[in-house]
Amino acid sequence: MDAFGFQGKNKAIENENRSVLFAQVIQGKPRMGINEEGFLEILGKSKKDRKVFLGDVAKSVLHSLGSHEKPVFTDEPNWDEQRWELICKSNELNIKINSSHYWGFGLFSRCFYNKIEIEGPLSVRSRCVHDIVSILGRNPWEAIRIKPFERITGLKMSEHFEMWNKLIKRAKNEMNEQILRLEDKVRKLRGVDENAVELLKSADLALEEARTALSDRNAPAVERALSRASNSIIQADPKTELMTTNMLLDED
Asked: What is the DSSP string of 144-213?
């Protein structure tokens, strides 16, 4: 077990705090640099820079984390710039990505796969996985060479689908529950205040946009729409105005 708490390289274990997923790499780019401390960085002009092909999957994983620490390589590439291992940490998640080939002796980018280990709260992990697939724009568990992929990962394609899909579904269900809660609030506010009709219409429109974004796997757009709906609901709720008035009176 390393400093991040990850298990050995070949132990594809999943528990309440950890998920292990395997993904087919399609593109080896972007090509990045590794600085003297082993951190991933934008490729510079210096000939001394160590090079690495990050790949489309790893790029999507790091992007899905949002704000995070600089990724650091625990196993740097040698002659093969697409074989490496890195770790990265965000506020709530620890991630390790291992890149290696599973077919074709590493001669083609499409013969590579990533093993992705994610540690952290289940809800946050699920959202991260949902965003990975959304950013990537394809199903990462679908292998180019099925039999070699199954052999190297030790899992059938149906198992890969199940592991990814249950996390994606959990994230979608949680976002859908948020939408339902706000829709219920809108229903309860109808007819309470005639002056709030337009605000409730705005909330309805935002919630409709949230549902459309959810069907498109666009989680950031869901969040933005939910935020607009929530603001309209707060303004439309007479209790909110009453609470604000009481707070101002207490200050006086």
From this structure: SSHHHHHHHHTS-HHHHHHHHHHHHHHHHHHHHHHHHHHHHHHHHHTTT-GGGHHHHHHHHHHHHHHHHH
Residue 106 in contact with residue 83, Cβ under 8 Å? Answer: yes
**pLDDT, tens digit (0-9, with 9 covering 90-100), for 26-51:** 998 988 888 878 888 887 655 566 88
- The tens digit of pLDDT for each residue in 142-193 reads 999 999 999 999 999 999 999 999 999 999 999 999 999 999 999 999 888 7
**SS3 for 86?**
strand
- Give yes or no for a contact between 225 and 213, defined as CB atoms under 8 angstroms apart: yes
Total domains, the chain: 2
Choosing from 101, 123, 155, the residue where a domain stops is: 155
Domain residues for the domain of 124 are: 18-155
Are residue 51 and residue 135 in the same domain, yes or no?
Answer: yes
Whether the Cβ atoms of residue 99 and residue 25 lie closer than 8 Å to each other = yes
Domain contains 8: no
Do residues 140 and 23 share a domain?
yes
Distance between alpha carbon 124 and the CA centroid of its chain, in Å? 8
40-41 and 72-75 beta bridge pairing: unpaired
Q: Are residues 95 and 184 in the same domain?
A: no
Parallel/antiparallel/unpaired status of strands 50-53 and 40-41: unpaired
Q: Which residues contact 11 (CB under 8 A, 6 or more apart)?
A: none
120 and 214 in one domain?
A: no
160/249 Cα distance (integer angstroms):
59
